[in-house]
Automatic annotation (TrEMBL):
Domain DJ-1/PfpI intervals: 4-153
GO CC annotation: endoplasmic reticulum; membrane raft; mitochondrion; nucleus; plasma membrane
Catalytic activity, as annotated: an N(2)-(1-hydroxy-2-oxopropyl)-guanosine in RNA + H2O = a guanosine in RNA + lactate + H(+); N(2)-(1-hydroxy-2-oxoethyl)-dGTP + H2O = dGTP + glycolate + H(+); N(6)-(1-hydroxy-2-oxoethyl)-L-lysyl-[protein] + H2O = glycolate + L-lysyl-[protein] + H(+); N(omega)-(1-hydroxy-2-oxoethyl)-L-arginyl-[protein] + H2O = L-arginyl-[protein] + glycolate + H(+)
Main localization, broad class: membrane
Gene3D superfamilies on file: 3.40.50.880
Highest taxon listed in the record's lineage: Eukaryota
Signal sequence residues: none
Species: Rousettus aegyptiacus (Egyptian fruit bat)
Similarity section: Belongs to the peptidase C56 family.
Keyword Hydrolase: yes
Protein name per the record: protein deglycase
GO molecular function: oxidoreductase activity, acting on peroxide as acceptor; peptidase activity; protein deglycase activity; RNA binding
Protein localization: Cell membrane; Cytoplasm; Endoplasmic reticulum; Membrane raft
Length: 161
């Protein structure tokens, strides 16, 4: 059986832990994870000034798809950058069409809204992103720590208290 494959899209301003922890957990589980830089292969400065080196560019990673799961880390600036990317939109639309998993963390679900992904599903986010997500009637909000509705998984935070 072929190994599962995950694509983690890393944008400038992404939350470090929401990037590194899912990558670490998935790799420990035997999933082949590709960290793809939204703006290319250069190191990416995250929200707390940690710099992460992507494995490849998003453009190159797209050519290696499809993936079993596409992960969108949070971080306000990172989520905004994901929301403004036509390539991210294309990848998410294809993932949704083929019923592949999409995981969005913290502010990451705002990119789902921007790209019109998963309309009609339940969503959970970081509390500061709730109003943005609920502007319009595209989603129903859940206070759950993790919300899976169909093929889309959302979580307000990676860490538990």
């Amino acid at each position: 059986m072929a190994s599962k494959r995950a694509l983690v899209i890393l944008a400038k301003g992404a939350e470090e832990m929401e990037t590194v922890i899912p990558v670490d957990v998935m790799r420990r589980a035997g999933i082949k994870v590709t960290i793809a830089g939204l703006a290319g292969k250069d190191p990416v400065q995250c929200s707390r000034d940690v710099v992460i080196c992507p494995d490849t560019s998003l453009e190159d990673a797209k050519k290696e798809g499809p993936y079993d799961v596409v992960v969108l880390p949070g971080g306000n600036l990172g989520a905004q950058n994901l929301s403004e990317s036509a390539v991210v939109k294309e990848i998410l639309k294809e993932q949704e069409k083929r019923k592949g998993l999409i995981a969005a963390i913290c502010a990451g679900p705002t990119a789902l809204l921007a790209h019109e992904i998963g309309f009609g599903s339940k969503v959970t986010t970081h509390p500061l992103a709730k109003d943005k997500m609920m502007n319009g009637s595209h989603y129903s909000y859940s206070e759950s720590r993790v919300e899976r509705d169909g093929q889309i998984v959302k979580a307000p935070l990676v860490l538990r208290d």
